């Protein structure tokens, strides 16, 4: 047998998901090459500013390096950069007239339905200590992450007498972590705000953890805790952590105010809870459960991690990338009012690349190379377009729906 025939025979013995050397370098070399190419393209592309036009034709320019508010004369359209405060407020509206009451009633209804369903269909769960120990871990981890993010946020950003973050305090001394935690409620942080730090980053960590924690904290198979009701308990207990941050609770307890501050993105006020829970966490949770159920017949549920990581890490990194390297910017609208928000093509490219990278990370979950490569090439650009064109705070559902459908089409038809 010749050398060429030996090599050909060895290559054919490698069956997917085992990789040949060439396949390995293709899977990881192409994303690397696309990253280098994108850096070169954006470096050579001339800087681009923005114009905000009102109904009467007046326009104001937002430079690519800056971030000033622009107001239209007719509709009072407000253009906001990441981390730029939409309005000076410490939430004066009574909580019973806001989304806080809706969220509290919704979670109360969810737990009532779950309790009734458990009594009717899974009464064995009430005495299953292994199940409840693992469920208790989910809110504990979520709350722990929120408090940690709140401590970091309070270390860098000044807060008012109620504990809400208010802005820059460049002349104050640097506190100890113990002082930050102790003063988290009443006097706020005594530290110095750093120009590079934004609440947007700590918010994204919680956003990501809300999806990831229920997926990675699993009960052992011996527990016999699979099914819709046990899964619903885990999701509900995780989302409950956000319901604890409604106004009466956060203004009464310093540790809850710390958690709220870490996701109270200035440009979202006064819709912080409405947009992160109603626009991100709840639809995202339902979509993850739906697509994992949809992938179950082929045993490929873990492919849902692709769009979860794109949403949490790819979209999360897009913000600091856009803020600190973005020279080519565009506008997106809000989903509820006349505000417009600034995004950058550099940030959107981060989402594009993450679609390729996280698909490559899950290559071994695809049944054959065709499934993988079609998903690989389609996922990146579709994720970037979904992030770029969706309204502010609504990019999560758009990314998850399109990402989930791409994966489903690949594993079903290829």
Q: Outline of this structure?
A:
Helices cover 58% and strands 6% of the residues.
Please give the number of β-strands.
Answer: 7
The value of Rg in angstroms is 24 Å
Number of helices: 14
**Mean pLDDT over all positions:** 75
Give the N-terminus to C-terminus distance in angstroms.
Answer: 35 Å
Given the C-alpha coordinates, what overall shape results? globular
Please outline the major beta sheet.
3 strands, mixed
Contiguous low-pLDDT stretches (5 residues minimum) are: 6-12, 52-77, 168-175, 183-194
- Fraction of residues in helix: 55-70%
Beta-strand fraction estimate? 5-15%
SS-derived structural category: mainly alpha
Order of helices and strands: HHEEEHHEEHHHHHHHEEHHH
In terms of topology, how is this protein built?
Elements: H1 3-13, H2 21-44, E1 50-53, E2 59-62, E3 79-80, H3 99-121, H4 129-156, E4 158-159, E5 165-167, H5 177-182, H6 199-216, H7 228-243, H8 247-250, H9 254-261, H10 272-295, H11 304-325, E6 329-333, E7 340-344, H12 345-361, H13 369-389, H14 395-413
Parallel strand pairs: 3-7
Antiparallel strand pairs: 1-2, 4-5, 6-7
Helix pairs in contact: 2-12, 3-7, 4-6, 4-7, 4-9, 6-11, 10-14, 11-12, 11-14, 12-13, 13-14
């Amino acid at each position: 047998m010749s050398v060429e025939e030996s090599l050909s025979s060895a290559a054919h013995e490698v069956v997917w998901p085992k990789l040949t050397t060439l396949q390995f370098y293709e899977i990881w070399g192409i994303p690397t090459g696309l990253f280098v190419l994108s850096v070169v393209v954006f470096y050579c592309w001339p800087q681009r500013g923005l114009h905000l036009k009102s109904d009467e034709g007046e326009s104001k320019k937002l430079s690519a390096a800056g971030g000033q508010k622009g107001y239209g004369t007719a509709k009072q359209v407000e253009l906001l950069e990441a981390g730029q405060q939409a309005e000076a407020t410490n939430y004066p509206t009574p909580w019973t007239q806001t989304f806080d009451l809706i969220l509290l009633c919704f979670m109360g209804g969810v737990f009532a339905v779950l309790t009734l369903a458990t009594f009717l269909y899974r009464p064995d769960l009430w005495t299953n200590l292994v199940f409840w120990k693992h469920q208790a871990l989910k809110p504990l981890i979520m709350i722990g992450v929120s408090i940690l993010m709140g401590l970091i946020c309070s270390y860098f950003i000044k807060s008012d007498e109620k504990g809400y973050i208010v802005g820059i305090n460049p002349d104050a001394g640097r506190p100890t972590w113990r002082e930050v935690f102790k003063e988290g409620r009443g006097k706020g942080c005594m530290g110095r705000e750093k120009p590079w730090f934004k609440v947007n980053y700590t918010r994204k960590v919680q956003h990501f953890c809300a999806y990831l924690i229920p997926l990675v904290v699993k009960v052992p198979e011996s527990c016999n805790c699979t099914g819709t009701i046990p899964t619903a308990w885990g999701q509900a207990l995780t989302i409950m952590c956000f319901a604890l941050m409604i106004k009466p609770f956060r203004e009464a307890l310093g540790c809850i105010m710390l958690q709220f501050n870490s996701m109270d993105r200035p440009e979202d006020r006064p819709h912080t809870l409405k947009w992160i829970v109603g626009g991100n966490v709840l639809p995202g949770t339902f979509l993850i459960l739906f697509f994992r159920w949809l992938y179950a017949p082929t045993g490929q549920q873990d492919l849902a991690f692709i769009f979860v990581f794109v949403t949490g890490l790819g979209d999360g990194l897009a913000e600091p990338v856009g803020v600190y390297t973005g020279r080519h910017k565009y506008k997106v609208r809000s989903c509820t009012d006349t505000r417009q928000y600034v995004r950058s093509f550099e940030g959107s490219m981060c989402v594009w690349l993450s679609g390729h990278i996280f698909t490559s990370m899950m290559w071994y979950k695809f049944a054959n190379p065709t499934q993988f490569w079609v998903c690989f090439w389609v996922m990146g650009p579709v994720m970037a377009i979904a992030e770029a064109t969706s309204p502010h705070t609504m990019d999560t559902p758009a990314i998850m729906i399109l990402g989930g459908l791409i994966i489903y089409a690949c594993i079903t038809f290829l």
